[in-house]
Amino acid sequence: MIRILFRYSILFSLTLLSLSALSFSLIYLFPAEPVTTLTGITPQNLIQHEALMNQYHLNNSIIVQFADYLSELFAGNWGVSLISGQPLSEEIMLALPATIELSACAMFIVIVVGIPLGCYSGLRAYSATDFTINSISVTAYSVPVFWLAVLFILTFSLQFGWLPLSGRINLLFDIPPKTGFLMIDILLAENVDKAAAFSDALLHMILPVLSIAFISTASMIRITRRSIIDVLNKPFIIAARSKGLSSKQIFFRHVLRNALLPILPLMAMQITTLITNAMIVETLFSWPGIGNWLIQAIYQRDYSALRMGMLAVSTLVVMITIAIDLFNRLIDPSREKYESVTI
């Protein structure tokens, strides 16, 4: 296991280095001079241009500039937003938890709804029930997330007025953003009706979460169904039936665990999809997450915010992917044995 941890540490370090190099190169790829990209200032003369070049070390070689960039990253100096004038590290640490909170709630629905329905469909493979569930999941998977979000807004917010149209919580609640996670901040807040704040926050969360979870749940149903069908055709299942075990015993002792093992690596892909869809949905619901923040940076041409936001999101996705793969190795030791034999 130590060897695996060391291998993944090297992999994460190299991936993070590559992402940092890509983020650094954006100042030369954006449609503006590097000095304007970093400062938001268009030099009016050669003297001002040279002064800004010296201040931001743009006269040095690319390697020296990249080394300075890495040192600033690890020091926590991510630059300043050209629009708000606030440190980018503070703005990202407030926007990113909102996206994580939205994606985590959506992932909870995906697991709670998608896996049981997938198991139910797989156990009744090629029946009328299976065809119905599979048809609905295929249709749901084909629906664009932005179209679904607009449909939810038109129906449940504008037509019936059941749920809030936008935002994260009613402006009447003054919740200081201590952690960035609204539910935790409500618990930490003082002089606030916590029950009412929780209720209002959940109402604001329903439509964005359902919009994100809808497509991923459909995908999880199909993945789980396929895995259940594959396991049911294994020889050890036939042997278990020949021993006289009941269908319930076979499912919980043999089918479920072996069917879930191939699903775990695919969950990393689902989380990536969830975060991507969350960044799209945030704009429609005015959710103050990293996606909405990046869109505003694009509109306002805040290139410094763009490159740091992209780096933060990419790093988060890589960390989650590696964490899920490590968890999969912990619960499935046979995978490590197989790899050691093939190597």
3D structure, described in words:
The protein is mainly α and 343 residues long. It folds into 2 domains: 73 residues, no CATH class; 254 residues, MetI-like fold (Orthogonal Bundle). Helices cover 76% and strands 0% of the residues. Helix 12 runs antiparallel to helix 14. The chain is globular, with a radius of gyration of 25 Å. This is Peptide ABC transporter permease. It is found in: Cell inner membrane; Cell membrane. Keywords: Cell inner membrane, Cell membrane, Membrane, Transmembrane, Transmembrane helix, Transport. One of its GO terms (cellular component) is plasma membrane.
Largest sheet: none
Do you know the CATH topology of the largest domain?
MetI-like fold
What's the CATH class label of the largest domain? Mainly Alpha
Mean pLDDT: 85
Q: Quickly give the structural class.
A: mainly alpha
Rg estimate, integer Å: 25 Å
Give the total of domains: 2
Q: Roughly how many Å apart are the termini?
A: 16 Å
Strand content: under 5%
Number of DSSP-assigned strands: 0
Return the string of H and E elements: HHHHHHHHHHHHHHH
SS element count, helices: 15
**Second-tier CATH architecture of the largest domain:** Orthogonal Bundle
- CATH H-level superfamily title of the largest domain: MetI-like
The unreliable regions are: 337-343
Proportion of residues in helical segments: over 70%
General shape: globular
Entry keywords:
mainly alpha, 343 residues, 15 helices, single chain, 2 domains
Topology (elements, then pairings):
Blueprint: H1 2-29, H2 34-39, H3 46-55, H4 62-74, H5 88-123, H6 128-141, H7 145-159, H8 182-188, H9 194-232, H10 235-242, H11 247-260, H12 263-285, H13 290-299, H14 303-331, H15 333-342
Helix pairs in contact: 1-14, 5-6, 5-9, 5-12, 6-9, 7-9, 7-12, 8-9, 9-11, 9-12, 10-11, 12-13, 12-14, 13-14, 14-15
